[in-house]
Specification:
- The protein has 231 residues and is α/β, with parallel strands linked by helices.
- The chain is built from nine helices and ten strands.
- The protein has helices spanning 10-14, 20-27, 64-76, 97-103, 121-127, 143-154, 164-168, 202-220, 222-230, and strands at residues 2-7, 32-37, 50-51, 61-62, 84-94, 108-112, 118-119, 130-133, 187-188, 191-192.
- It has a five-stranded parallel β-sheet with strand order 2-1-6-5-8.
- The two termini are 29 Å apart.
- Bound molecules: 2-(1,3-oxazol-5-yl)aniline (J9Q).
- 2-(1,3-oxazol-5-yl)aniline is lined by residues 88-90, 114, 133-135, 138-139, 141-142, 145.
Length: 231
């Protein structure tokens, strides 16, 4: 998979891609992630990426030209025929595991990150195929949301996780919250690991974990159980 990130703040996204699972996925050649600095695609001598909004009002709007020019370069650098151009915005469809699974099947994802108040609407109209939100809160820009989506997607690419079983049983992949987990020591500051986990009875352990998942989901996220029935 090829992933391009278009941003005016490239340093904001670089280091998270150089750690943990995403780093390993790149090393294994399973994903090729490239970061593009919008300032390299500006057309004026001050390398301006934003400007005042037509019609007035507070906040700045990101200029269209750097996005268009950067997209031209990206599209000319690959022969991958199909791509999704994703704009991270609170106005988008709220991201979930189903969307992560869908995006993990693509060969080329391009993330456009806005900063400041907005991006010129012509960018969204002409270039963007998907508008995605990661939830209802105010952020400074699309960089952190893009990293969230990239993390969720990259770990689903076949071969990225060493234990595919672990991925399949993760929270949400089965549409339930995860059960509690314990490791050594068996007792710590008077707190004991549940007996069933030490029993060696794998059938009983599996049943206990499912019950715990269900109980937690009912208590904390009953909305998940409802949407599960609706599907
Ligand atoms: C770009 N708040 O918020 C939630 N998902 C995406 C966003 C977002 C934001 C500001 C700028 C994206």
């Amino acid at each position: 998979m090829r992933i391009d990130i278009v941003t005016a703040f490239p340093d904001l996204v670089r280091s998270p891609l150089e750690e943990s699972i995403i780093k390993r996925a790149q090393k294994k050649g399973l994903v090729d992630i490239r970061v593009h600095d919008l300032r390299d695609y500006t057309i004026d001598r001050h390398h301006q990426v934003d400007d005042y909004p037509y019609g007035g009002g507070s906040g700045m709007v990101m200029k269209p030209e750097p996005f268009f020019r950067c997209l031209d370069v990206i599209l000319n650098s690959t022969r991958i025929p199909k791509r999704r151009v994703i704009y991270m915005t609170p106005q988008g469809k709220v991201f979930n595991q189903k969307m992560a699974n869908e995006l993990a099947r693509e060969n080329h994802l391009i993330f456009l990150c806005g900063h400041y108040k907005a991006v010129d609407e012509r960018v969204i109209e002409a270039l963007v195929t998907d508008e995605i939100s990661i939830g209802d809160y105010v952020l400074t820009g699309g960089e952190l949301p893009a990293l969230v989506v990239i993390d969720a997607v990259v770990r689903l690419i076949p071969g990225v996780l060493s234990d595919p079983e672990s991925a399949a049983t993760d929270s949400f992949q089965q549409e339930l919250l995860d059960c509690p987990y314990y490791t050594r020591p068996e007792e710590y500051r008077g707190m004991k690991v549940p007996d069933v986990l030490l029993s060696g009875d794998h059938k009983k352990i599996k049943q206990w974990r499912f019950e715990q998942s269900l109980k937690r989901t009912k208590e904390r996220r009953s909305d998940l159980l409802k949407s599960r029935k609706e599907e």
